[in-house]
Design a protein that fits this description.
CATH class: Alpha Beta
Helix content: 25-40%
GO molecular function: alpha-1,2-mannosyltransferase activity
Pfam families: Glyco_transf_15
Family: Belongs to the glycosyltransferase 15 family.
Signal peptide: 1-24
CATH topology: Spore Coat Polysaccharide Biosynthesis Protein SpsA, Chain A
Distance between the termini: 65 Å
Radius of gyration: 23 Å
CATH architecture: Alpha-Beta Complex
Number of domains: 1
CATH superfamily: Spore Coat Polysaccharide Biosynthesis Protein SpsA, Chain A
Shape: globular
Keywords: Glycosyltransferase, Signal, Transferase
Bound molecules: guanosine-5'-triphosphate, magnesium ion
Length: 395
């Protein structure tokens, strides 16, 4: 029986479409967040595997003295820090409550709050009421917060307009630029942190989901770790077009700063999102999402990072572009530090809207193991963990 020509054409088109779809599914980049096909030799998101505590000796609250007022406690030289505005008090309280419930009520590390204006009495009263540990309230020195005199404010305004037209969030908000610069190169210089070594950064509106029953600061110290993260993410290339070229200039002038065991392949990956690498001029834009950080301030106070930050600061990109502390910290760690000194805290369940780090563990509740994002499905492609796991590892 003869088949009409339009039907034949339609059938051929359907077969071609089917072949195309099968091909696309087979070759699709396997983002962890989509739960798609295997990547880098792994068959699934590691967060879906049962997650326990890190191996080796851990300091526990029932074996050592972690009483809040003890003068001879087992606490090491560390504090929980938070840059926060008075207006964010109601959003900070649940973050504090989560971290106290899951971890700090056992260890009683001090909280140190920072602000560019004085904290209100209400802020002090309500935050101290959330913890048995000591709270401290600190003003950021003007010289750490103000726009440096080298910055041309007319040029800032013009650049901010252009970035805003490109849809870059917060581009024209000067306080956002100041905040990013402070978190990049100032926080560890604050006099209140002078005698501290390790910090855990906390922001308003974040959540913690898992009981952590060991002293994470002692963990960092015992294993000689520099930095710990939970989420690994892509950045908006429009915010950092000249960050990588500027970094390359710095590196060319200081070749000895490059660690023998660096993370260059992760920093320069062009497979997962080639367009990001292209638009950021050679940088993958992958970074440790720095609203969560557990780190050793000695790294930031050291010669390499200090010289790097000063170089970036003079280049002006904290204002003429919108360089964030996350890519700046991440690039520095990726270049100057040994990759084995960076730790993925896979066991710390964490959320900063819209992304999660949610392990599969009986110690966790109120998050879905392996779920990476909440909201529109396009967020899945912001996950940089496949590249990190491939080039650096899952440690
Ligand atoms: N004191 C003070 N804190 C600030 C200022 N700007 C930002 N922060 C704090 O810096 C941290 C990061 O700021 P956010 O506005 O959350 O920036 P973000 O995480 O990139 O943006 P979101 O995705 O909107 O949360 C938060 O802890 C804020 O409370 C400021 O001008 N003054
Ligand atoms: Mg935030």
């Amino acid at each position: 029986m003869a088949v009409a020509r339009p039907i034949r054409m339609l059938s051929v088109a359907c077969v071609v479409l089917l072949i195309f779809l099968v091909f696309q599914m087979r070759r699709s980049p396997s983002y962890v967040g989509t739960g798609a096909s295997p990547y880098n030799g792994m068959t699934a998101d590691p967060l879906k595997d049962p997650t326990g505590e890190p191996e080796g000796h851990l300091w526990r609250a029932d074996e050592h003295d972690y009483a809040p007022d003890s003068t001879d406690s087992a606490r090491t030289n560390a504090a929980i820090i938070s840059l926060v505005r008075n207006e964010e008090l109601n959003e900070l309280i649940p973050s504090m409550r989560d971290l106290e419930r899951t971890w700090n009520h056992k260890f009683n590390y001090p909280w140190i709050f920072f602000n560019d204006v004085p904290f209100t009495e209400e802020f002090k009263k309500r935050t101290q009421a959330e913890t048995k540990a000591k709270c401290q309230y600190e003003l950021v020195p003007k010289e750490h917060w103000d726009v440096p005199s080298s910055i041309d404010m007319n040029l800032f305004k013009e650049s901010a307009e252009l970035l805003k037209e490109k849809g870059l969030q917060y581009a024209d908000k000067i306080s956002y630029h100041k905040m990013c610069r402070w978190n990049s190169g100032m926080f560890y210089k604050h006099p209140a942190l002078k005698d501290y070594r390790y910090y855990w950064r906390v922001e308003p509106k974040v959540q913690f989901f898992c009981d952590v029953d060991y002293d994470v600061f002692r963990f960092m110290e015992d294993r000689n770790m520099t930095y710990g993260f939970t989420i690994n993410l892509f950045d908006a290339p429009e915010s950092i077009p000249s960050l990588w070229p500027t970094t390359q200039e710095f590196l060319a002038a200081n070749p000895s700063y490059l660690s023998d065991n660096n993370m260059m392949e992760w920093l320069t990956d062009d497979q997962l999102r080639p367009d990001h690498n292209r638009d950021a001029h050679g940088y993958s834009t992958c970074h440790f999402w720095s609203n969560f950080e557990i780190g050793d301030m000695e790294f930031f106070r050291g010669d390499k990072y200090s010289a790097y930050f000063d170089y970036l600061d003079h280049a002006g990109g904290f204002f003429y572009e919108r360089w964030g502390d996350a890519p700046v910290h991440s690039i520095a760690l990726g270049l100057f530090e040994d990759k084995n000194k960076v730790h993925w805290f896979r066991d710390i369940g964490y959320r900063h809207i819209p992304y999660f780090n949610c392990p599969n563990s009986p110690k966790c509740s109120a998050c879905t193991p392996g779920k990476f994002y909440d909201g529109a499905s396009f967020l899945a492609k912001e996950d940089c963990r496949p590249s990190y796991f491939k080039h650096v590892g899952t440690h």
